[in-house]
UniProtKB/TrEMBL annotation:
<keyword id="KW-0808">Transferase</keyword>
<dbReference type="Pfam" id="PF00583">
    <property type="entry name" value="Acetyltransf_1"/>
</dbReference>
<protein>
    <submittedName>
        <fullName>Ribosomal protein S18 acetylase RimI-like enzyme</fullName>
    </submittedName>
</protein>
<feature type="domain" description="N-acetyltransferase">
    <location>
        <begin position="268"/>
        <end position="409"/>
    </location>
</feature>
<feature type="compositionally biased region" description="Low complexity">
    <location>
        <begin position="139"/>
        <end position="152"/>
    </location>
</feature>
<keyword id="KW-0687">Ribonucleoprotein</keyword>
<keyword id="KW-0012">Acyltransferase</keyword>
<feature type="region of interest" description="Disordered">
    <location>
        <begin position="126"/>
        <end position="209"/>
    </location>
</feature>
<dbReference type="InterPro" id="IPR016181">
    <property type="entry name" value="Acyl_CoA_acyltransferase"/>
</dbReference>
<dbReference type="InterPro" id="IPR050832">
    <property type="entry name" value="Bact_Acetyltransf"/>
</dbReference>
<keyword id="KW-0689">Ribosomal protein</keyword>
<dbReference type="GO" id="GO:0016747">
    <property type="term" value="F:acyltransferase activity, transferring groups other than amino-acyl groups"/>
</dbReference>
<feature type="compositionally biased region" description="Gly residues">
    <location>
        <begin position="153"/>
        <end position="185"/>
    </location>
</feature>
<feature type="domain" description="N-acetyltransferase">
    <location>
        <begin position="17"/>
        <end position="156"/>
    </location>
</feature>
<feature type="compositionally biased region" description="Gly residues">
    <location>
        <begin position="194"/>
        <end position="204"/>
    </location>
</feature>
<dbReference type="InterPro" id="IPR000182">
    <property type="entry name" value="GNAT_dom"/>
</dbReference>
<dbReference type="GO" id="GO:0005840">
    <property type="term" value="C:ribosome"/>
</dbReference>
């Protein structure tokens, strides 16, 4: 077994039996990708985690600190990564499904938290004492004395994983999306957990753990380590085209067949997304979601650009519904394989408009040859019931946990 190397400023926890987390500078991307795929196949969650661009952003951003756990034959069976963000380090991690229940996940999490703690303390002290005297060529902190923090952690990500009951972290890797979102009349990015909002901590040096394939055991592990949930979404999927046609009577009884019949409120007119109509979409979005706690209320130009500049955005599947006596009343935005957002004005709710918009968008996806569609819905959003009636099924859960920030005058977490 390879000895655990010293990481400046990090006191590594005791190993999980014979398994140890080892800091690795050059973990092959193919090994991480294989681990991600195995975990996602077992746990579900966000399907984007298996995409190369997504994986690289979470595991291979500049300055990332990675820890690996390997079997006796050298095979990668667990990994964690720590990266910086504006308001504190973020952690992501996973354990091979065949090696769960041995405490590996808990050991990886403890190791990543130790590394994040060292970086957080360095950042807090830098604010108090001023910049450190030495940096690398890219501005990364360079340890200059025993006990100094490791080089600056990079990127955005978090701990994705599900946990076996004994403290092993058992899930797929991944990172965050600002969407996809779903839900009639409310955005699905609002807090779904114990904190009042995403800040939740004592300051600007919080530690965030991010999961794209959460299980009950993982949640228990995170809470046991002093982390509190501030966000959770269910990931849902529906088969389209040939898959939907082959589901038969059982699917029809579950509500999947409803997608074939679209019942619009009388007098409904549809408008597709375009440069000229995008501002109208934003106006309905803001009016529909403003009542939701934590609504970010982005400026129109920012929200429009986030949609229109996405290569996967599909204007022809993104629709605005206009009702007599109300005007612009509801909308759906869609991307390749995704229902991104659905919103309906309070005055227009209760007449089936949100469901009709989703059905029509799915119909257009199917006509373009799509075989499936996904969405994410906040765990406290009643719109999940609508999606189930349309034929969507749960495919895992994604969540965010946070440990409150550090007091720069003390070497301990304040929360």
């Amino acid at each position: 077994m390879t000895a655990v190397p010293e990481v400046p400023g990090v006191m590594l926890p005791a190993p999980a039996g014979r398994f140890r987390a080892v800091a690795e500078d050059e973990t092959p991307e193919a090994e991480i990708a294989g681990l991600v795929r195995r975990c996602w196949a077992a746990d579900g969650g966000l399907p984007l985690v298996v995409e190369p661009w997504f994986l690289r952003g979470r595991w291979f951003a500049a300055g990332t600190v990675r820890f690996a756990v390997r079997a006796d034959d050298g095979a990668l069976i667990g990994a964690a990564a720590v990266r910086p963000a504006a308001d504190g380090p973020v952690i992501t991690g996973l354990v091979d499904p065949a090696f769960r229940g041995r405490g590996i996940g808990g050991h990886l999490l403890d190791t990543a938290l130790a590394a994040a703690r060292a970086e957080t303390l360095a950042a807090a002290r830098a604010e108090t004492l001023g910049p450190r005297p030495h940096t690398g060529a890219d501005g990364a902190l360079t340890p200059t004395e025993p006990g100094a923090a490791p080089a600056a952690l990079g990127g955005g990500g978090g701990l994705s994983g599900s946990e076996g009951g004994d403290g092993s972290l058992d899930s797929a890797s991944g990172g965050g999306l600002s969407g996809p979102e779903g839900g009639e009349g409310s955005p699905d990015s609002a807090s779904g957990g114990d904190l009042p909002g995403p800040e939740g901590g004592a300051g600007g040096h919080d530690v965030t753990v991010e999961s794209e394939g959460l299980t009950a055991g993982a949640g228990e592990l995170f809470v046991a380590r002093g982390l509190r949930r501030f966000f959770a979404e269910d990931v849902m999927r529906i088969g389209l085209g040939a898959e939907a046609a082959g589901l038969g009577a059982e699917a029809a009884g579950s509500g999947a067949a409803e997608a074939a019949v679209i019942r619009w409120p009388e007098g409904t007119e549809l408008v597709e997304w375009s440069a000229g109509t995008a501002g109208r979409f934003h106006a309905v979005y803001a009016a529909a979601f403003r009542e939701r706690p934590g609504f970010p209320d982005p400026p129109a130009a920012e929200w429009i650009a986030e949609n229109a500049e996405d290569d996967d955005f599909r204007p022809a599947w993104s629709l605005l519904a206009v009702l007599p006596g109300i005007g612009d009343a509801g909308f759906v935005t869609a991307a390749d394989g995704w229902i991104v957002q659905v919103g309906v004005l309070p005055v227009a709710r209760g007449v089936g408009l949100g469901g009709a918009l989703v059905r029509e968008s799915l119909r257009r996806m199917t006509g373009a040859g799509a075989g499936e569609a996904w969405l994410c819905v906040n765990v406290d959003n009643p719109a999940a019931g609508l999606y189930r009636r349309l034929g969507f099924q749960e495919h895992g859960r994604r969540a965010r946990y946070r440990r409150p920030g550090l007091d720069p005058d003390h070497d301990f977490f304040t929360g």
